[in-house]
Design brief:
Elements: H1 12-19, E1 23-26, E2 29-35, E3 45-49, H2 57-78, E4 83-89, H3 98-118
Parallel strand pairs: 3-4
Antiparallel strand pairs: 1-2, 2-4
Helix pairs in contact: 2-3
Length: 131
């Protein structure tokens, strides 16, 4: 379950690992999901990031606060144990209506879970190439 602050991703190496994981983009958020092989039944962890591209510090902090609140509500319902989720704010995150933001996060989490269940191996075939 996510609401525990100890279940936060804070180290850069964990964010970098998740960068190579499957991701899904919605209008207000990009979510990356990485199953931890070393701890498959462990806590669901979440990390939050916003680049300077989306605005100044006030806008970035507001976007991350909104993503944390959405994750607190939705990860216990749609998150998988032993999985890391990285929530990346987009330009619309700070100003999108709350119900629309929740819909985006929920749809992304469900799509990622469906991809994981439907795959027989590595999920990287669903990750966009960097060409």
């Amino acid at each position: 379950m996510y609401p525990d602050r100890a279940a936060r991703i804070t180290e850069r190496r964990d964010f970098l690992r998740a960068r190579e994981a499957p991701r899904i983009a919605r209008p207000s958020v990009v979510i990356q999901m990485l199953a931890r092989k070393d701890d498959p039944d462990g806590l669901t962890r979440a990390g939050f990031t916003a680049t300077k591209k989306i605005g100044n510090a006030v806008v970035r902090n507001r976007a991350k606060r909104r993503l944390r609140a959405a994750a607190r509500l939705l990860l216990p319902l749609h998150g998988r144990p032993g999985t890391d989720y990285v929530f990346i704010a987009r330009a619309q995150t700070a100003n999108r209506s709350w119900p629309a933001l929740l819909d985006d996060v929920k749809a992304a989490l469900i799509s990622l879970a469906r991809r994981e269940r439907g795959s027989t191996g590595d999920l990287r075939d669903h990750t966009p190439s960097k060409t």
